[in-house]
Amino acid sequence: MINVKSEIGVLKKVLLHRPGKELLNLTPDTLEELLFDDIPYLKGARQEHDIFAKVLKDEGVEVVYLEDLMGEVLKDDEVKDAFLRQYIAEGGIRTKRYQAIIYKHLSSISDPKELVLKTMEGVNLNELDRGVYNSLVDLISLQSKMVIAPMPNLYFTRDPFAAIGNGITLNRMYSKTRSRETIYGEYIFKYHKDYKDTKKYYDRYDHFSIEGGDILDLDENTLAIGISQRTEPDAIELLSKRLFKESGIKKVLAFYIPKSRAFMHLDTVFTQVDYGTFCIHPKILATLSIFKIEDAPRGVKIKRLDGCLEDILKRELRRDDIRLIRCGGNDHITAEREQWSDGSNTLCIRPGVVICYERNDVTNAILEENGLKVIKIPSGELSRGRGGPRCMSMPLIRDGA
């Protein structure tokens, strides 16, 4: 049920998450902790996301939702019990009294999908039946306190796990805020009838952080992974060793990009849009370093690659038609502005056809001038989370390109 061996093969099946009430639990005081710069308007975000999903469906892509897959998993009462106890523990609830109160509250939700959505939304203290206040915690706690934080970043389904060939990485997320998101992938790939036998190359319990926005399937033998704000080099080396032994991947190209909120993942500055054609944020070109990782008798062989990015891609992908299309063109201010609103974060649904945010009109026009078909979607609210169409989608099946 997983088959992704390129960035541009015809997209057949994709995983999304429709923004939910977790966005309503963002406040100005929690924005930094929850990795947002502003608070999206939920109604607008849902309308924009529904347009995104409709575009995909109209292009022949089967759309499945994280909340639906997880809801199917929780139809099993034993699995539901294990999930709730793990969710409460990972939510930071340490006292037995509050563990029992929250477990009772959540287990009273009979519909599995509604339960999933509630766990994504978070748990507010004023929802709980606490009985007589008989502890210091009860007496000093604000009535509107979130006792289990929401997961507002979940609509960026690209990050918690990544598809590589016929397997996945179940990622260890960089921040505490997002680390709980991978619990859904853990249960889906352990219990869902369609996905429980999927090969797993990395696990959320491994020691080093890696996120899906840094993983690009360049072809069936070559992976690109960003060494970024959120993916550690140790994780790339460990994953490479496993891939060389257990998959068809022959080499990994590690892109060392600046550690920045604007460049949080490789796919925020570099995506593939057609055979040999890539969209790139020009600001990274001056400082970009690329390392090639290959299998070796005693682990891996790592080599720093010399030359400009075009020449490196020509050599490593064995293509003479490499083109780099600059986000924002040659204007520095335009490039920075449109990269901030995800102009480089394109989603290719088949060779030469990409979904982009409509607001990045300069970059979109340049893509069209270079022969690409650009399907534009609104993003006034979605882009407040700092992620574009690629960030919001996890391909499950692509035909070969």
What report would you give on this structure?
With 401 residues, the protein is of the alpha/beta class. It folds into 2 domains: 303 residues, 5-stranded Propeller (L-arginine/glycine Amidinotransferase, Chain A); 80 residues, Pentein (Orthogonal Bundle), CATH 1.10.3930. The protein contains 12 helices and 19 strands. The strands form 6 sheets. It has a 5-stranded mixed beta sheet with strand order 8-9-10-13-14. The protein has a 3-stranded mixed beta sheet with strand order 2-1-19. A 3-stranded mixed beta sheet has the order 5-6-7. α9 links the parallel β9 and β10. α3 crosses α4. The mean pLDDT is 93.
What class do helices, strands and sheet pairing give? alpha/beta
**CATH fold-type name of the largest domain:** L-arginine/glycine Amidinotransferase, Chain A
The count of β-strands is 19
> Beta-strand level of the residues, as a percent range?
15-25%
Low-confidence stretches: none
Rg, alpha carbons: 21 Å
- Give the CATH class of the largest domain: Alpha Beta
Dominant shape: globular
For the biggest β-sheet, the strand order reads 8-9-10-13-14
CATH architecture of the largest domain: 5-stranded Propeller
In short:
The chain is α/β, with parallel strands linked by helices.
